[in-house]
Amino acid sequence: MYELVLALPAIALIVSVFADVLLMSYLQLGISILVFSIVIAIAMSFNSITVFLGGFFFVDYINLVILITVSTLELFVAFYSFGYVRTEIAGGVSKRKFKFYYFWKNLFIFSMMVSILSNNLGIYWTGLEATTLATALLVSFNRTKESFEATWKYVIMCSVGIAIGLFAIVILYFTTSQVYGESLQSLSFINIMQAGAKLDKNFLMLAFLLALVGFGTKVGFAPMHNWLPDAHSQGPSPVSALLSGVLLNTALLGILRFYQINGASGIYYPRYFLIGFGFFTILVSAFSVIKQTDYKRLFAFSSMENMGIIALGFGIGGIAVIGSLLQIFFHALNKGLLFLSSGNVLAATHERRIDKIRNLSKNFPVTALVLLFGVMGISGMPPFAMFLGEIYIMTGVFRSNILLGFLVFILLVFIFIGLFVKILKMYTGNTENEEAGDEFKNSKTAHKGVDESVIHPFMVYVPLILLLLSSLLLFYIPSPFLNIVQSASAEFGGRIIFK
User: Fold this and answer.
1) Which one in 131, 310, 434, 468 has a CA-CA gap of 20 to 30 Å to 396?
2) How many domains does the chain have?
């Protein structure tokens, strides 16, 4: 069963080369449903670390949280892509342009699965590097000057970051090889954790710092974040949802592995670096949100903010770890909701600028409402599920340091106001272009007949279902998932709060 989680995306990858894009959209739905079902079956019966494929891959509680997150969001993206492809083709985009859309998307998913499930840090690195190559072709999918520029920045910055991450693995191998010798055992995460106190603490700390900077570049931590808003805004909306919702978490897993290794060796200083990077990322996001004029870039900076919150929770420890693990899943759902909803607006209007879009409530009633509630959800307001994750994190922060908690709270309020005001302008029509007269008349959003009827129903209802899930999960989270989160948090000093 575990092997199928890797095998099915690989099969989809191969089939997509030969299948017609419209046929592949049906096959993709079937494969995504199968992968999701298998992951849920694993989660329902999971009770201990499971190693498979010769010990090169394994499932533990931490990567199972991320695996559930990836398979869930990918399922919704597969449904959305079904409508997205048809809407774009109906709008005049040639089928030839979509020839390799599913190929690169499945390579992306397969690479993430390899990284997430890897028990070998070398394989983890290889999978993460492969995600860069796959998503580079997806970011440049629209073949515009802006998309090529975003791709170039993405490849250069992330490749440098991944290279620094590789150096972290080399340093770790240097010290673990003194215990296990020059063999693959020295790269096995399980073996490294068992070595614990036998490892050189200075090298472990250095390896963590390099991993934090290297893999943190791909997570989007400030100040290594410059690629993120460009890449997330230029890629197709389904790709933006996956980049923001799950790729950042896959890179974060690498940092958490090094964090675990240091913890197993009795080194606790790394938590302060997680807190520092987390807070600084939230701070940069807060000031960046205010000046954004592109709604997809706006949501990209929101992703930065949430990754900063998650890192902060892991660094604080205790009850905040529970919040971070919940936030990983809930953020993926909510960010998928925002990027897919914004994809509806972009598909119909071909406009990215906030000041060129108005009256969403009239022309896009369902999408506009989902966007508005999505901003409330991503900000951690009840009754949306992210409220639960953020309240645990903030409780942990306030218990740890009242001043830090106060500062983080102010920044989160600041970000919420920035997001809400900009989306409210699009929703109600109170934009700069209302005073621009003839300039707005040339905007595509001013044309009659531009409404939700021009896009496929899947593109409307998938974000709506995500919104409903995000609301319902605040009140009822399945107990198997809570048990997994609780067990995962124990490895980072989390407290038992679920019974």
Assistant:
1) 468
2) 1
Residue 96 falls inside a structural domain = no
Domain membership of residue 348 as a residue range? 271-499
Quick one: which H or E segment has residue 372?
helix 365-378
How far apart are the two ends of the chain, measured CA to CA in Å? 29
Q: On the CB side of 226, how many CA atoms lie within 13 Å of its CA?
A: 10
Q: How many angstroms separate the CA atoms of 324 and 62, rounded?
A: 11
Residue 436 lies in a domain: yes
Instruction: State pLDDT tens for residues 235-291.
Output: 899 999 999 999 999 999 999 999 999 998 988 899 999 999 999 999 999 999 988
Report how far residue 422's alpha carbon sits from residue 136's, in angstroms, rounded to the nearest whole number. 29
CA distances (Å), origin 164, targets 80, 168, 265, 382: 35, 6, 22, 40
Low-confidence residues in the chain, pLDDT < 50: 430-449, 499
Hey, what are 15's tokens?
Answer: 């089939």
pTM greater than 0.85 (yes/no) = yes
In a domain, 165, yes or no: no
Peptide bond into 223 cis (omega under 30): yes
Question: Which of 296, 377, 309, 388 is CA-nearest to residue 344?
Answer: 296
Q: If DSSP codes are grouped into helix, strand and coil, which group holds residue 497?
A: coil
Residue 182 burial (CB < 10 Å; 0-12/13-18/19+)? exposed
**pLDDT tens by residue, 142-164:** 888 889 999 999 999 999 999 99
Q: What is the pLDDT of residue 439?
A: 36
